[in-house]
Write a structure and sequence with these properties.
The complex is a heterodimer of chains A (about 450) and B (about 325).
Chain A lengths: L2 H27 L13 E7 L2 H17 L2 E7 L1 H14 L6 E5 L2 H7 L7 H6 L10 H6 L1 E2 L2 E2 L2 E6 L1 E6 H6 L10 H11 L6 E4 L10 H10 L16 H17 L9 H9 L3 E7 L2 H5 L10 E5 L12 E7 L6 H11 L2 H11 L16 H6 L4 H10 L23 H16 L5 H20 L1
Helix pairs in contact in A: 9-10, 17-18
Chain B lengths: L1 H14 L6 H19 L3 H21 L2 E2 L9 E2 L3 H8 L1 H33 L5 H13 L2 H13 L5 H10 L8 H4 L1 H26 L3 H9 L4 H28 L4 H7 L8 H11 L3 H34 L1
Antiparallel strand pairs in B: 1-2
The chains are: A alpha/beta (about 450), B mainly alpha (about 325).
Amino acid sequence: MSRATYATVAVVGAVALSTGLSACAGAGGAGGAGGGGGGSTDSINVLMVNNPQMVDLQKLAPEFTKESGIKVNFTVLPENDLRDKTSQEFSSQAGQYDVATLSNFEIPIYAKNSWVADLTSYTKSDTAFDQSDILEPMTKALSVDGKIYGEPFYGESSFLMYRKDVLAAKGVTMPAKPTWQQVADIAAKVDTPGGMRGICLRGQPGWGQLFAPLTTVVNTFGGTWFEKDWTPKVNGTEFKAATNFYVDLVKAHGEAGASQAGFTECLNNMTQGKTAMWYDATSAAGSLEASDSPVKGKIGYAPAPVVKTDSSGWLYTWAWAVEQKSAKKDAAWKFVSWASSKKYEELVGAQLGWSKVPAGKRASTYSNADYVKSAEAFATETKSAIESANPDNPGVQERPAPGIQFVDIPEFPDLGTKVSQYVSSAIAGQGSVDSALDQGQQLAETVAKSYQK
Amino acid sequence: MSSTTTVTARGATSGAPGGGRSTGAAPGAAMRRTGEWARRAPLLPALVLTVIVTQLPFVVTIVTSFISWNAYYPDRRHFAGLENFQTVVSDPDARKAILVSVTLTLSVVLVSLLLGLVSALLLDRKFLGRGIVRTLMITPFLVVPVAAALLWKHALYNPEYGLFDGLLKLVLGSNAPQVDWIGQYPFASVMFAIVWQWTPFMMLILLAGLQSRPLDVVEAARIDGASSWQIFRHMTLPHLRSYIELAGLLGTIYVVQNFDHVFTITSGGLGTANLPYYIYQTFYTAHDYGLASAAGVIVVVLTIAVATVALRTVFSLFKEENR
């Protein structure tokens, strides 16, 4: 065999490999529902996260089709995958989906790039939708320059959920406004080796997984990702103290397999009685208090634990946005306004139970007698957590960009995910938090450079 | 071009013995040429499509790798020269990913080759229900990779409800240690899940090799008093060599691309991010198309280098054997 032949075989192999690689990258992008855009207006494609409220929506969608004659094709993905897919879809303006669930992280960034449709005129002409009923922080978080780009499906903050019965059995009382040290002490007291663990905290890599709760802890410990002038502070004393505290707590009293546990895993653990406390999204309470939940009525709710700040809950909303490229904006708005309406909340209440209502977005929800009665365990706590969240000033110092559990810049998903991978390793007992954050600082410095110019 | 010349030449030679029909040679060749093309033409679209589908993305990737292109900043797109390549090479995460790719591929291929060899040897014997066992052994290879990875992550490794820890409890009692498999042994967790998928592939190729072995020679050796080990060492193994090499080469080409297992089992955490995962993250999370393309090009260049060396070794081994 000649030299040329070796090279040819090698090149053919390598090219096969490279196409294989692109094919595997494509696997994340392909396989959408119902094919591309265009076609008739009697069907729209919706891309959404697989949270329980969205799964309920999928069940009730035939009601919408009955009312409007519009068929809805759903593509439902876990949070991390959804983010990859939506950013891919909207940045390329592929037009495959008409509506997608985006959060208050994406919508301001996407709006600046004109990737999402301006919904202001719809909200003005559609009086039945009643935009003024949407909670003010939500409308504000989903608007840019006074134009509305998204409608919340549900809103959430974060708080501490705990088993009242378990704490009582151990003679422990939860303070009305716990500090993180008090929470750690309680976790140590209620932790039973081989049985129920003290607390569940996310450890799965991903900026929207591990770093959602962890950034709120960093904020209240006095740390920040960036200072006002974009100086990165990822390996600052406070950031390190907060992360060490979090990692130590989850290692000592957290769930088994913590480095791979996210929101869903903790929800399962809490529902199945495997953990006594859980610090996470307020929206989780609806699932915990559902009529078929084994822990219904056993859970108490306390504000997000603090150290140096008065409150430390996050502000987050899964909102509907319409892709700018969509050819079916009217049908898309019909769906969005239906899914975010008071009527839809009533439909969920009547058919699935009031505790499952996608709450936290409309003031009227909290004056609805049926809802308040069924969600009395967590309704007021949720509303006050949302109202006390301040995305513009969540820590002890001024910030260059809004956001509580994230920094609202396009670079954050990559930065947060990479640093979360290092921290997750530390949770698994591989490497230290300090070296993880030193690595994170270098990444943050690269990001800061383009903003400091 | 070259095929046309051959056709003409063949037409001319075949026309000659026909007995001096000087006029018949040229139209005959032309007709034959038209006939050949009539047969080939329908295949052309397929060829063009194949070239477009397989080679065009590659060319686009090379072009993109020289552009500074982040999807979040459509206005800042510009030609960047070698900047992307410099960034990738100086990125410690990328270097780590290269190392992980190499170790993961090598360990998966070696372990699954060994297990495949053992199971092929066992399956080569005659026993009751061999057909069923063979089918069962092949099944892991037929499972969709992402489903297999999910199965390992949840059904087997999970420390709360996974089978491995359940088995420990069953054997050692309720006080059995409950291992956090993925957290404590992330690399091995990913590796064994892939090994499980690839062992059947190795087994299939090696089994084919075993069954093509001339049994009369083995029998003769046995009559001459050779032990089973001696027969295996001096007859079976040399016969299997080319099959082992082929299985190893094909396995390597596919395992290097593994993405599903890393993505599903560890989300790229715990130091298990390999190159495909790194490229995925750069492309889908950071939306840095230029950087991701540069990383992709580097993978291809590295693979060409490795494959050339590997193929040369493999082919020289073939030659030695033929001597």
